[in-house]
Design a protein that fits this description.
The complex is a heterodimer of chains A (about 280) and B (about 475).
Chain A lengths: L1 E10 L2 E7 L1 H6 L5 E5 L7 E4 L2 E3 L4 E7 L3 H7 L6 E2 L1 E6 L10 E7 L2 H14 L3 E8 L8 H7 L2 E6 L6 E2 L2 H11 L3 E7 L2 H13 L3 E5 L15 E4 L2 E4 H4 L2 E3 L5 H8 L3 H24 L1
Parallel strand pairs in A: 9-10, 9-13, 10-11, 11-12, 13-14
Antiparallel strand pairs in A: 1-2, 1-7, 2-6, 3-4, 3-8, 5-6, 14-17, 15-16
Chain B lengths: L6 H6 L6 E2 L2 H4 L7 E3 L2 H9 L19 H9 L3 H11 L3 H7 L6 H4 L11 H14 L15 E5 L3 H12 L3 E5 L8 H4 L8 H13 L3 E3 L10 H7 L2 E4 L5 E2 L12 E3 H10 L17 E5 L3 H12 L4 E5 L11 H9 L3 E3 L2 E8 L5 E14 L5 E5 L5 E3 L3 E4 L3 E2 L33 E3 L2 H4 L4 H20 L7
Helix pairs in contact in B: 3-4, 4-5, 4-8, 5-8, 6-8, 9-17, 13-14
Classes of the chains: A alpha/beta (about 280), B alpha/beta (about 475).
C-alpha cells in the first residue's frame, strides 16, 4: 500500500499528489512513468512522473479528471493509501548537452516537462519553455517552470493570460528567429504533440514526444501500448514512452488510445451511480 | 478394507470419469468446467491402483510426488495423510491436479495402460487437494529451524512458488518478488478461471506464505531494483520471471484496435477480471466473430474465453493440421464441445479494417504440408492463389511468447542465449553468474506449469547445496 502524503488541487479538475514510494524515488529518472491502481477492483493506469524527492522517498503525480479512475483518485485524501503503485517504468529522457532546447507542454503534460526541463538546464542547455492552455486558470506550475527555464512563454487560447494563441504559434516564432534550437520536447494532448511535430519537421529539428497509450502491466508483457514507430512496432512501456515524434504513426496511435471510449464512459457512469447510491444510503442512514 | 480387492479384479475395472458442466451451460459462465470426483469416485478410482513395487508413474512426475502412497491413503479413506504426502514435495497440489498434462507424464507411465486406461492420478490429486482445502487441513509449518541465510526468488509463477516453498521448508529466509499486484504469475494472469479458479491459486499461495515465505508485490526487478541491488542483500537468487513478452505475426493491420496479444486478452480477463466489467474497471472488447491464431493451450484458453465473453463465433486459425496441434487433447476436446471452429492449414496474411482501426476481416492463405522441418513436423507451405477473406471483427494472436529482456538487462554476468533465455548449467541450474540460478519459462521458453514446478524444486536443492558449502553472493 502506498500512502498519499500530500494532495493539492492545481485547478478545478487537475490535481497533484505526493506518494510515498521510496523504492521508486530511489531510481526514477525524468521521462519515466508509474502505473497505479486505486483499489483491487481498479484498472491499471500509467502516469508520467511529474517530480520526485529521493530523500523523502516521494513521487509526484499530476492528473486531470478524464474518467473513472482519475475521478476516483481525486476523491482520495492525504493519508489514504493506493492499492498498487509500480515503477519506475519505461526509458528515461535523453538528458545531454544539446545547446538550445525548447520544451512544449500542454494540459498535464506541463507537469511532465518539469523534471526534464530541470535536468536539461542542469546539463547546461539554454532552456526555453512554452506552456499553453485554454484559459489562464488552467496554466499550472508556472513558478516551478520559471525557475528552471531561461525563458518561459505562456499562451492561452482566449488570451486571458500570456499570449493569445496556441503553443505552436509561439514555437513557430521561436523557430523562425532562432537557428540554434537543437531539440524540442513536446508533451501533452496527442493532437498538440502531432501538430508540434509536423511544425518542427519543416525546420528539421529533432522532436521528442511522450506517448500516453493504454497499458495493462506496463512491463512489456501484453503489447496493449504498441504503436508503429518508423514502420516498426514498438512497446511504449518498455521502448518508450519517449519517441522521435517524426516517426510516430499518429493515426494508428490515436485510434488505439480511443479504443475503449465507450467502455470508459460506461465505467465512469457506473461509478457515479454507485457514488449516488452511497450518498443516498448515507443520508437515509 | 477396500484394498483387499484382488489384482485381477482391479485390472478389470473401468476408469472413473469426472463430471463436467455441460457445454451449453458452461459457455455462458466462467465457472470451472470439470466438477471433480466425489468421495466415492475417488475411492473407487484409487482402488484400481496396483500399488506397483517399482512404480513407474513417479518417474513421470517432475513434482516428485509419492503417487502410490497417496493413492493408498485414499483407498484407506485417510485423505489427510494423502494430502500431506502430496504436499511433502508439491506445494501447489490443487493447481497441478488441474493443469498438469498427466496423460503425458505420470499417467503415461502407468502399467494399466497395457490393459486399459491408466489411473486418473491428476483427478485423484485434485480431489485430495480440494478435500483438504474444504476441511482446513494444513501442512506442517512449525518444525523448521531457521538459518540466517537469505534467498531472493524473482517471479511468483509456478517455478518461483515451488522453489520458494522448498527453500523455506529447508529453513532459508525467502523473499519472493512479484512485478504485478497479485501473486501467481501465469496461474493468475494467464490460465482462465474456468480451468483454474483464482481462489484456489490464492489459497495455495497463502499456504506457501505460511511456511514463512516473505512476499513483495509491485516490485519490478529490472526497474524498481536491479539484480545488482539484490546481490547486495541476498546470499543467492533464483530468477523465474517467465517468458512474458508476446509474439506478433508482423503482418499488415496487426496494430488495429481489435487485435490483441493472447497475453493482453487473457490478462485483462483473468488478472484484471474484465469479465466482471463494470464491477471491475478494466474493459475488454469482444467482437461477434473472433479469430484466435495458434493452436496451443493459450490459444484454446483465448478462443474459449472469447466465447464466454459473448462472441457468437470463435475460430482457431492454425497453419498446420490437426495432427500437429500442440494443445492438450483435453483442451481441444473441451473447445470442440463448446463449438470453437477450427480452421487448419490456414495462415493469416493481413488484418483488414477501416480508417478508425476497427477490424473488418482477415485475409488468409491455405497451406499444405511439405517436408519435415527441424522440429520433425511437416512444414506448412502456402498454396499459391488460395487467398480468402475470413469475416471476423476481432483477432487474438496466440502464437507464443518470447523472453522479456527487462531482468537480463539489469543483471551483470548473467548470460542469455540468442533467444534471450538464461543460459544455465543443466545439472545445477546455475546461470553464468555464480550464486544466481534460473528456471521455468525464462530458461525453457514457453512450457508447462509442471515443468516450471520441477525446475523450482531442482533449483531449490541446488541453491541449498551452494549455500551449505558456505558460498554467498555477498562474499
Amino acid at each position: 500500500m502506498y500512502q498519499i502524503i500530500k494532495k493539492e488541487k492545481l485547478y478545478q479538475d487537475i490535481y497533484a499528489m505526493w506518494i510515498k514510494a521510496p523504492e521508486i524515488a530511489r531510481t526514477v529518472q525524468p521521462g519515466q512513468f508509474i502505473i497505479l491502481m486505486t483499489r483491487e477492483e481498479g484498472e491499471r493506469i500509467p502516469l508520467t512522473v511529474a517530480d520526485y524527492d529521493r530523500e523523502k522517498g516521494l513521487i509526484v503525480i499530476v492528473f486531470q479528471i478524464v474518467g473513472k479512475t482519475t475521478d476516483e483518485l481525486s476523491s482520495f485524501k492525504e493519508g489514504d493509501y493506493l492499492y498498487s503503485f509500480i515503477g519506475p517504468l519505461g526509458q528515461k529522457s535523453e538528458i545531454d548537452y544539446f545547446g538550445t532546447v525548447v520544451l512544449v507542454g500542454g494540459g498535464t503534460g506541463i507537469a511532465c516537462i518539469h523534471p526534464i526541463a530541470r535536468n536539461l538546464k542542469k546539463a547546461g542547455n539554454k532552456v526555453i519553455t512554452i506552456i499553453g492552455a485554454r484559459t489562464k486558470k488552467l496554466i499550472i506550475m508556472e513558478k516551478e517552470l520559471r525557475q528552471v527555464s531561461d525563458e518561459l512563454i505562456i499562451t492561452t487560447d482566449d488570451g486571458s493570460y500570456g499570449r493569445k494563441g496556441f503553443v505552436t504559434d509561439a514555437l513557430k516564432e521561436k523557430l523562425d528567429h532562432d537557428n540554434n534550437i537543437k531539440k524540442v520536447w513536446t508533451i501533452g494532448p496527442p493532437i498538440m504533440m502531432k501538430v508540434t511535430t509536423s511544425l518542427t519537421k519543416a525546420y528539421s529539428v529533432d522532436t521528442i514526444v511522450s506517448l500516453n497509450t493504454i497499458m495493462v502491466d506496463g512491463t512489456g508483457m501484453c503489447g496493449s501500448c504498441r504503436v508503429s514507430i518508423g514502420g516498426e512496432t514498438k512497446f511504449v512501456c518498455t521502448d518508450g514512452p519517449e519517441f522521435d515524434g517524426q516517426l510516430v504513426d499518429w493515426d494508428g496511435f490515436m485510434n488505439r488510445i480511443g479504443r475503449y471510449k465507450k467502455e470508459e464512459k460506461e465505467s465512469w457512469n457506473h461509478h457515479k451511480n454507485q457514488e449516488e447510491c452511497h450518498c443516498k444510503e448515507r443520508s437515509n442512514g | 478394507m477396500a484394498d483387499m480387492i484382488p489384482v485381477k479384479e482391479r485390472m478389470k475395472r473401468e476408469q472413473i470419469s469426472m463430471r463436467e458442466q455441460s457445454p451449453d451451460k458452461r459457455i455462458a459462465n466462467f465457472k470451472e468446467v470439470p466438477l471433480g470426483y466425489t468421495r466415492e469416485d475417488a475411492i473407487k478410482e484409487a482402488q484400481r491402483c496396483l500399488q506397483c513395487k517399482n512404480p513407474k508413474c513417479m518417474r513421470g512426475c517432475p513434482a516428485e510426488i509419492n503417487i502410490p502412497q497417496f493413492i493408498k491413503y485414499i483407498v484407506e479413506e485417510d485423505f489427510e495423510s494423502a494430502y500431506l504426502t502430496i504436499l511433502k514435495t508439491d506445494a501447489l497440489p490443487a493447481v497441478t491436479g488441474r493443469v498438469c498434462p498427466q496423460e503425458e507424464q505420470c499417467q503415461k507411465e502407468c502399467v494399466l495402460n497395457n490393459t486399459g486406461k491408466p489411473i486418473a492420478i491428476g483427478r485423484l490429486e485434485r480431489f485430495v487437494a480440494d478435500w483438504a482445502r474444504k476441511n482446513h487441513i494444513h501442512g506442517k509449518t512449525d518444525t523448521v529451524v531457521k538459518k540466517d541465510i537469505k534467498v531472493a526468488v524473482v517471479g511468483s509463477g509456478p517455478a518461483g512458488l515451488s522453489c520458494a516453498a522448498d527453500l523455506a521448508k529447508m529453513g532459508y529466509h525467502v523473499t519472493l518478488f512479484e512485478a504485478l499486484h497479485k501473486l501467481g504469475g501465469v496461474l493468475v494472469y494467464g490460465i482462465p478461471e474456468f480451468r483454474l479458479p483464482k481462489t484456489i491459486v490464492e489459497y495455495e499461495v497463502n499456504e506457501i506464505k505460511k511456511i514463512g515465505v516473505q512476499v513483495i508485490t509491485d516490485y519490478v526487478v529490472g526497474a524498481t531494483g536491479s539484480v545488482e541491488d539484490l546481490k547486495k542483500e541476498f546470499d543467492a537468487i533464483f530468477l523465474a520471471n517467465g517468458a512474458g513478452a508476446p509474439r506478433f505475426m508482423n503482418i499488415p493491420g496487426e496494430n488495429m484496435n481489435d487485435v490483441y496479444s493472447a497475453n493482453e486478452f487473457l490478462t485483462r480477463s483473468n488478472l484484471m477480471k474484465a469479465y466482471l466489467f463494470p464491477e471491475y474497471d478494466t474493459p475488454i472488447k469482444i467482437g461477434r466473430k473472433a479469430a484466435t491464431i495458434g493452436a496451443g493451450n493459450v490459444a484454446m484458453d483465448s478462443a474459449r474465453t472469447a466465447l464466454r465473453l459473448g462472441a457468437q463465433k470463435s475460430y482457431i486459425i492454425y497453419r498446420r493440421s490437426r495432427k500437429e496441434v500442440p494443445a492438450r487433447a483435453e483442451e481441444v476436446h473441451h473447445a470442440e464441445e463448446e463449438g470453437i471452429i477450427f480452421n487448419f492449414l490456414t495462415l493469416p496474411v493481413r488484418v483488414l479494417g477501416n480508417k478508425e482501426g476497427k477490424v473488418t476481416g482477415m485475409e488468409c492463405i491455405k497451406m499444405k504440408l511439405g517436408e519435415p522441418d527441424e522440429s520433425g513436423r511437416r512444414r506448412p507451405v502456402p498454396i499459391e492463389g488460395s487467398n480468402f477473406t475470413l469475416e471476423v471483427d476481432m483477432v487474438i494472436d496466440a502464437i507464443g511468447t518470447m523472453a522479456n529482456p527487462i531482468i537480463a538487462k539489469s543483471a551483470q554476468g548473467v548470460e542469455v542465449n540468442r533467444w534471450g533465455y538464461f543460459k544455465i548449467d543443466e545439472k545445477t541450474r546455475m546461470t553464468t553468474c555464480e550464486g544466481i540460478f534460473a528456471g521455468g519459462d525464462i530458461v525453457r521458453g514457453a512450457a508447462t506449469v509442471i515443468s516450471a514446478v520441477g525446475d523450482g524444486k531442482v533449483a531449490a536443492r541446488s541453491i541449498a547445496t551452494y549455500l551449505s558449502s558456505g558460498k554467498s553472493l555477498k562474499k
